[in-house]
Design brief:
It contains 8 helices and 9 strands. A hairpin with a 6-residue loop joins strand 6 (329-335) and strand 7 (342-348). The chain has a 5-stranded mixed beta barrel with strand order 5-6-7-9-8. The protein has helices at 134-161, 168-191, 194-205, 210-214, 220-229, 286-290, 297-301, 352-360, and strands spanning 247-253, 256-264, 270-278, 281-284, 310-316, 329-335, 342-348, 375-383, 392-401. The protein is of the alpha+beta class. The protein is flat and about 170 Å long.
């Protein structure tokens, strides 16, 4: 860029001796606290008039009043350093050891003594077929044949010593198998008589004359008086047929087989009939079917009636009083056959009745506070001692399990 042009008409005044402009290098030093002389104010220089311009016309002059700076006067200069492609390398303070050229010296292999060398590994004949001696093959064959012949000769003697001998236990076991087979045959024969059982119960439930009913009842001679005394009207009409959902189950009670027919009557009430085989005829057990008892539960609840033969559902309970303490008695709840009435029965511990009921009502040990469902029993009761409640009874004896009397009449 070109410097500002110098106006030839603008001349700076000459420097006089009394001017103190510029830096203070050449000036006299001043002391602290003295006043410094300021430079004089320059007089305003009027630009010369131009004869070609009108004196009354005023215009704007743009010019540079600062004189150009001489290159040698400036104290701030830029140092220019040229960077070429040469790299300055630094030598290490400790010089590295000089490299020595590698020198190789050939060595001769020692001479091996062939006499002391021992062969190792496979021989030259390894893998090639080798011929066996015929004499050795014949000897091995004869030895094997002799061992087999001797073993066959000793086999009968070994079998004879290990043969099973019949004894008394084996005879009894064979007899038990025969009895089991006979029991299975009886079971199958009774299970296949559902249609006959339905016909017997249908005739019994619709019978109007007692003599007609006695022909269908088991042990009719011993229950005739009871049937006549407890005569009830016919349960169904002659045209009634057991429904299709009637169930027929075969049960066993201490070796005694009986069938249980259960279903619904026309009034939607449930019936359960017990039938047993008598010779080749299927008969109905009257006491078990009608749930006969010498006293009703309504009577037993107020401590009345004859408790000699009571059919009920029994379950273990924990209702103890001062008259029946837990240390001496086990409590049971006796439910009526229709599950509408309940009384309390107590069996003295370690007596026959208590031991029998404990086996019948075994609690489930896997789940806590879980018991088997109520079981059917036929039992004999006695009134409680003084201080007992009216519905608290002593269990005197267990006549038999369930409600049907076994044919042996031996009870439990």
């Amino acid at each position: 860029m070109n410097p500002s042009p110098i106006d030839p008409h603008n001349h700076a005044p000459a420097v006089t001796a009394d001017d103190v402009w510029g830096d203070a290098v050449g000036g006299s030093p001043t002391t602290r606290g003295s006043t410094t002389d300021l430079p004089r104010k320059k007089a305003k220089v009027e630009p010369p008039s131009s004869p070609s311009l009108d004196r009354n016309l005023k215009g704007l002059r743009i010019e540079s009043k600062t004189p150009p700076r001489s290159p040698d006067v400036s104290s701030h200069q830029i140092e220019v350093r040229e960077i070429d492609g040469n790299v300055v390398r630094l030598d290490p303070e400790v010089p590295s050891a000089p490299r020595i050229p590698r020198q190789s010296t050939p060595q001769e292999c020692p001479v091996e003594n062939a006499a002391q060398r021992s062969p190792r590994g496979e021989s030259a004949e390894w893998g090639l077929p080798r011929q066996q001696s015929i004499r050795w093959i014949l000897s091995a064959s004869l030895g094997i044949a002799a061992v087999v012949i001797v073993a066959l000769m000793l086999l009968p003697l070994i079998n004879e010593s290990n043969a099973a001998r019949p004894d008394q236990a084996q005879a009894a076991y064979t007899l038990d198998q025969e009895e089991d087979k006979a029991g299975q045959e009886s079971w199958k024969a009774l299970a296949s008589r559902q249609q006959e059982a339905e016909q017997v119960f249908r005739a019994f439930a619709s019978a109007v004359v007692v003599d007609d009913m006695l022909l269908l009842v088991r042990d009719s001679g011993s229950v005739t008086s009871l049937i006549r005394a407890n005569r009830r009207p016919a349960l169904v009409s002659k045209a009634w047929v057991p429904p299709a959902n009637t169930l027929w189950n075969v049960m066993e009670n201490d070796g005694f087989l009986c069938g249980f027919l259960e279903g619904y009557l026309p009034d939607d009430s449930r019936f359960g009939a017990y039938l047993v085989m008598s010779g080749k005829q299927l008969l109905l057990d009257w006491k078990a079917t009608t749930v006969y008892a010498t006293a009703t539960f309504d009577e037993l609840e107020i401590k009345q009636g004859n408790p000699a033969e009571i059919r009920a559902r029994i379950i273990a309970s924990d209702f103890f009083t001062s008259t029946f303490p837990e240390e001496d008695y086990q409590c049971y709840k006796l439910l009526s056959p229709d599950n509408r009435t309940a009384i309390w029965g107590y069996a003295r511990r370690n007596e026959v009745a208590h031991n029998t009921l404990s086996k019948l009502l075994q609690t489930v040990e896997i789940l806590e506070n879980t018991q088997v469902p109520p079981q059917k029993v036929t039992l004999r009761l006695d009134p409680g001692p003084a201080g007992a409640l009216p519905n608290q009874w002593l269990i005197q004896a267990i006549l038999h399990k369930d409600w049907i009397t076994p044919s042996t009449q031996t009870g439990l």
